[in-house]
Design brief:
One of its GO terms (molecular function) is metal ion binding. The structure is a single chain. This protein is α/β, with parallel strands linked by helices. It has one domain: Aldolase class I (TIM Barrel, Alpha-Beta Barrel). Helices cover 36% and strands 18% of the residues. The chain has an eight-stranded parallel β-sheet with strand order 1-8-7-6-5-4-3-2. The longest helix has 16 residues. It binds ribulose-5-phosphate. The site of ribulose-5-phosphate has 20 residues, from strand 8 and helix 7.
Length: 225
């Protein structure tokens, strides 16, 4: 079966008990902890910064932390999140003045670099940087808020990105974020994704293990084809 990763977004977690809640979702079978970092400038919402990443590391969370920066500019926060214990860091190309430099900064800080594409952002930003990418994150909602509905034409864009990855001959993860649920995860995987961010679909359920297992069951049917 394919190597699929499930990455719960802490945007929908219980911030009053964040360490416990993250521990609980990992014990329930999640692979990666996803951070949605919003600055009320690049997106119209404000979440949290590197101190939350450091606090979770100090609490004892050892799972990979995948930081999605919805901020502009990006370079200062890349350094701060890397120092705070991030594993993967991605940013939106239009939010950085020097995309190649920001990607190299992530690499130099020892983290895995990614680029993020909004539903209407051109994939031309992939030109000339494929060799630096560990992952590509495709937004299936407009960024800023959890709990939105998956935008259906993202599936076509996913297939396009998957093709670009295959043409590059590189092993680049393809991550999808926004409106991912049990009932659409198989279609998303079928279109080429291998990493799934889900916030509300997991954290709004009383039993995280059940919903994560349901997602894995759906993914098993894709892996088997
Ligand atoms: O980054 C986001 C918005 O900017 C995502 O949509 C969020 O992380 C996932 O939320 P949900 O699974 O509830 O759609």
């Amino acid at each position: 079966m394919k190597d699929f990763l499930i990455a719960p977004s802490i945007l929908s977690a219980d911030f009053a008990r964040l360490g416990e809640d993250v521990e609980k979702v990992l014990a329930a079978g999640a692979d990666v902890v996803h951070f949605d970092v919003m600055d009320n400038h690049y997106v119209p919402n404000l979440t949290f910064g590197p101190m939350i990443c450091k606090a979770l590391r100090d609490y004892g969370i050892t799972a990979p932390i995948d930081v999605h920066l919805m901020v502009s500019p990006v370079d200062d926060l890349i350094e701060q999140f890397a120092d705070a214990g991030a594993s993967m860091i991605s940013f939106h190309p239009e939010a950085s003045q020097h995309v190649d430099r920001s990607l190299q900064l992530i690499i130099d800080k020892g983290c895995q670099p990614g680029l993020v594409f909004n539903p209407a952002t051109s994939l031309s930003h992939l030109d000339y940087v494929m060799d630096k990418l560990h992952h590509i994150l495709l937004m299936s909602v407009n960024p800023g808020f959890g709990g939105q509905s998956f935008i259906p034409n993202t599936l076509d864009k996913l297939r396009e990105v998957k093709q670009r990855i295959e043409e590059s001959g590189r092993n680049i993860r393809l991550e999808v974020d926004g409106g991912v649920k049990v009932d659409n995860i198989a279609a998303i995987a079928d279109a080429g994704a291998d990493m799934f961010v889900a916030g509300s679909a997991i954290f709004n359920q009383p039993d995280y293990a059940t919903v994560i297992q349901q997602m894995r069951n759906e993914l098993a049917s894709v892996g088997a084809r």
